[in-house]
Amino acid sequence: MLFRAVRRPSPSSASPPVLPGFRPGRGCLRVGEPRADVAWRPRLTFVLILCLAVFLPGVAHAGDPVAELASGSFDTVRQGVDDLAASGNPRAAAILSALENDNLYYLPGDPPKLFISTDDGDTYSDALTGAKADDPGDDVKSVRINNAVRSAIDAALGALRLFDPRASVRAEAAEAVFTSHDPGALPSLDKAIAKEADAGVKRKMEQARAAVVIADTQAPQDQRLAAVTVLRDRGGDGARNLLSIAANESGPVAVAAKAAVEAVDRVMRLWGFAQSVYYGISLGSVLLLAAAGLAITFGVMGVINMAHGEMVMLGAYTTFVVQGAMHAWLPGLYGLNLLVAVPLAFLVSGLVGVAIERSLIRFLYGRPLETLLATWGLSLVLQQVVRSVFGANNRDVDTPAWMSGATQWGGLTITWNRLYIIIFAFLVVAALMAALRYTPLGLRMRAVTQNRRMAAAMGIKTPWIDAMTFGLGSGVAGIAGVALSQIDNVSPNLGQGYIIDSFMVVVFGGVGNLWGTTLGALTLGIVNKFLEPIAGAVLGKIVVLVLLILFVQRNPRGMFPLKGRAVET
């Protein structure tokens, strides 16, 4: 009866609708029929799955990092980077590093294979195992990346290194995440913060988490407000940039971010002032090294030595020769080349200075104009001799590993080479002061400086003191050349850039007074560094020179003039 009711509906009832694409007949069902076993649904589902498998083959590999990296699509490769980082694969860091360096290749197939090549592309290894692999042939293809993929790689590598056993690597990873502030690194950051035992590294991780949270506008408001506090305490350009973006929003987060930006700016101005003072002390220490020897010769002998810069140049070339010799014959001690160069530069420049005094200067005492012209001509001769021996091109002088790099102290960037030069300059000046005060040669030099005639009457051989004084001043200039070789080009013209500044320092501080030379060098260095951002390097030097002229007009003998009967007359 049921079958007949279906096949013979009453004439008054409308025919039920027919499934589109199907013709009613035997074995076909009309829509709306009260049948539980609808036979067409399993078949239609099978057809849809078959179509997806044919037209969307990538769906079959969803979540497979290897297949995603071998897809050829930048978006899919980026997803593969994220999936590989989250997979826990012990080879993830090596694979991502190879991808970052364009050394990751894939061989199409089902499934595809990943290979890591050497930089020269001669050998391959299996990316998943690290084992050496046979040459995959011409079918192998490079995994291409763009800027978006590179950003994802940086964030992924940063997240992976958060669990490195070395604290320094974890700290670098936290800084990388702070810079990228990729939201994908947040789960790894939370795990790393929970496990971290080092307080300094943990603080960097918390700052990185704050950067991720503040950059995510969908994050909870209470977390973003806490992130504003963390970034304000961190300070610096990176934190300020993130806070500035948040300050352009609306709501409580924007208000807190604006206040944090103002606080960071105040702190950054203070650190900027400290940075300028540090750069000024650094420049002043260089001037001090160059002028310390000149202060001795000019103060004791009254000689305007225009060849003093060439003594500095000889010290720098001595450093170059020492480095070449130690690299060839003592490579195991190459890291100590500067320690060897310092005494040798002092001896070379000092002996040349003694020879100059005995052969030229001693005939020109009391004739300052002739002395100036003679030493200026001598400087040209020394420059040409160096050009003939070493060539006119700049020479490379290596910086030892212990002097390379920089460190961050709050908002102050301290470069190791400048810091060592500052310490070295003060040690040299301290040694000079001790030698002048406590050694017999120093006592005789001071006596000749204060009253040459009386010193001669007391039996002091003033010609011998003159030669030793000139040699000492030239030797100190050679030591200055060792230091300058680490921050300037070693060339025949090296000393010319410091001779005028050296005379300015000596005149400003007081002729023959090392205390005055020290304070004069530091003062001129700091004033220069504060004027350069305002007036520029050239105009800043002009302003300093004008100020120095005005000062000398009022104090002709400098800040700390020497005392003595002969000096005062």
Structure in a nutshell:
This protein has 569 residues and is mainly α.
Task: Quickly give the structural class.
Answer: mainly alpha
- Characterize the main sheet: 5 strands, antiparallel
What is the overall silhouette? elongated
* Number of strand segments: 7
Distance between the termini: 144 Å
| Helical stretch tally | 23
Low-confidence stretches: 1-38, 45-62, 565-569
Proportion of beta-strand residues: under 5%
Proportion of residues in helical segments: 55-70%
Helix and strand pattern: HHHHHEEEEEHHHHHHHHHHEEHHHHHHHH
- Based on CA atoms alone, the radius of gyration comes out at 39 Å
Major β-sheet strand ordering: 4-3-2-1-5
Overall pLDDT confidence: 82
Question: Overview of this structure, please?
Answer:
With 569 residues, this protein is mainly alpha-helical. Helices cover 65% and strands 4% of the residues. It is built from 23 helices and 7 strands. The protein has a 5-stranded antiparallel β-sheet with strand order 4-3-2-1-5. Helix 4 (74-86) runs parallel beside helix 6, helix 7 runs parallel beside helix 9 and helix 12 crosses helix 21 (514-535). Residues 1-38, 45-62 and 565-569 have low confidence and may be disordered.
Provide keyphrases for this structure.
disordered C terminus, elongated, 569 residues, 65% helix, mainly alpha, five-stranded antiparallel β-sheet, 23 helices, two-stranded antiparallel ribbon
Compile the SSE list and pairings.
Elements (H helix, E strand, L loop, with lengths): L1 H6 L32 H16 L9 H5 L4 H13 L5 H9 L3 E4 L5 E5 L6 E3 L5 E2 L7 E2 L4 H14 L6 H14 L5 H10 L3 H17 L5 H14 L1 H12 L4 H50 L6 H22 L7 H23 L8 H23 L15 E4 L2 E4 H23 L1 H11 L1 H6 L4 H23 L11 H14 L4 H22 L1 H18 L10 H4 L1
Antiparallel strand pairs: 1-2, 1-5, 2-3, 3-4, 6-7
Helix pairs in contact: 4-6, 5-6, 6-7, 7-9, 8-9, 9-10, 10-11, 10-12, 11-12, 12-16, 12-19, 12-20, 12-21, 13-14, 13-15, 13-19, 14-19, 16-17, 17-19, 20-21, 21-22
